Amino acid sequence: MTAPETESRTVSRPEPNAEPIRVAILGATGKMGRYAVAAVGGAPDLELVAELGSRDPVSAALDAGASHLLDLTVPQVSPDNVAFAVEHGLHAVVGTSGWSAERRETLSGQLAAHPEVGVLIAPNFSVGSVLASAFAAKAARHFPSVEIIEMHHPDKVDAPSGTAVRTAGLIADARQAAGVGASPDATTHDPDGSRGALVDGIRVHAVRLRGLEAHQEVLMGGPGEQLVVRHDAFDRGAYMPGVLLGLRTVASRPGLAYGLDAYLDLD
Ligand SMILES: NC(=O)c1ccc[n+]([C@@H]2O[C@H](COP(=O)([O-])OP(=O)(O)OC[C@H]3O[C@@H](n4cnc5c(N)ncnc54)[C@H](O)[C@@H]3O)[C@@H](O)[C@H]2O)c1
Ligand SMILES: O=C(O)C1=N[C@H](C(=O)O)CCC1
């Protein structure tokens, strides 16, 4: 598969006459990586200095003169990659899933020793998906019931998706701030876990189906009505404007940002 050229969107604009941002991509041969190689390679203000695969040491990014690391790998190795970046003063933009609260806390500790470094952990680079999660978090405090269904291609190795975990966290925070209790649920017998995973007190159901790409529904229910906030990504081009925005912004935001919404003016 060759990644198509990425159309530019209005979310991110290069600074005129600025030094190019020197990017090393980890996971460059993966599905996201191939799209990112095309997007970064096609951006006039970015310079793709290294395309690294699973056999390359992360130190090759330094050897290539990178200023920024783009991590699109697997949850098992992403924390070590980012720790290396932080330790060597490289800014990092991370799309890899699996960044639990515990992992983010460890990373914050590492960043404390390198306060000039910026890291963005983006569970989802799609602007539409970030907006859908934000809308859902705004709406969910008005409904007694809320559940999330995430649906992905069957090659995905992690469940639930990073996006679902992030959405559940946003919804849980908004409901807690508004004093809304748990969704009503009379289930007392569920030996096989049919009611899904509980993430921050929100039920999350994961579907893996050939033909799907990345889809999420937040179902909200109240007496006599239902609101569904749905987002669909049909191919990985959906993520590239957010990837470019992240790379262009991260150096100016030292410390840890969790979620692309940190770089979007959503209010
Ligand atoms: N944030 C987002 O918007 C977004 C969107 C899509 C996918 N993702 C996530 O990005 C990650 C990659 O997704 P994908 O669909 O490209 O997966 P993929 O399986 O196609 O690619 C993974 C890449 O990681 C590489 N890799 C594996 N082990 C490695 C190691 N030890 N060191 C370095 N590289 C290693 C593989 O060679 C491969 O190139 C996943 O965690 C996925 O959930 C995030
Ligand atoms: O295809 C994937 O894998 C995706 N992973 C991210 C997640 O776990 O939320 C983003 C959506 C696509």
TrEMBL record:
Question: What is the official name of this protein in its record?
Answer: 4-hydroxy-tetrahydrodipicolinate reductase
Please state the protein's primary subcellular location: cytoplasm
Q: Which UniProt keywords apply?
A: Amino-acid biosynthesis, Cytoplasm, Diaminopimelate biosynthesis, Lysine biosynthesis, NAD, NADP, Oxidoreductase
- So what does this one do? Catalyzes the conversion of 4-hydroxy-tetrahydrodipicolinate (HTPA) to tetrahydrodipicolinate.
Q: Which residues form a coiled coil?
A: none
Q: Which residues form the signal peptide?
A: none
Q: What is the lineage of its organism?
A: Bacteria, Bacillati, Actinomycetota, Actinomycetes, Micrococcales
Q: Where in the cell is it found?
A: Cytoplasm
Q: What family is this?
A: Belongs to the DapB family.
> What reaction does this catalyse?
(S)-2,3,4,5-tetrahydrodipicolinate + NAD(+) + H2O = (2S,4S)-4-hydroxy-2,3,4,5-tetrahydrodipicolinate + NADH + H(+); (S)-2,3,4,5-tetrahydrodipicolinate + NADP(+) + H2O = (2S,4S)-4-hydroxy-2,3,4,5-tetrahydrodipicolinate + NADPH + H(+)
Q: Pfam families under this entry?
A: DapB_C, DapB_N
Which sites bind NADP(+)? 55
Q: Where is the Dihydrodipicolinate reductase C-terminal domain?
A: 129-263
Which pathway does this chain act in?
A: Amino-acid biosynthesis; L-lysine biosynthesis via DAP pathway; (S)-tetrahydrodipicolinate from L-aspartate: step 4/4
Q: Which SUPFAM superfamilies match?
A: Glyceraldehyde-3-phosphate dehydrogenase-like, C-terminal domain, NAD(P)-binding Rossmann-fold domains
User: For this protein, what is the EC number?
Assistant: 1.17.1.8
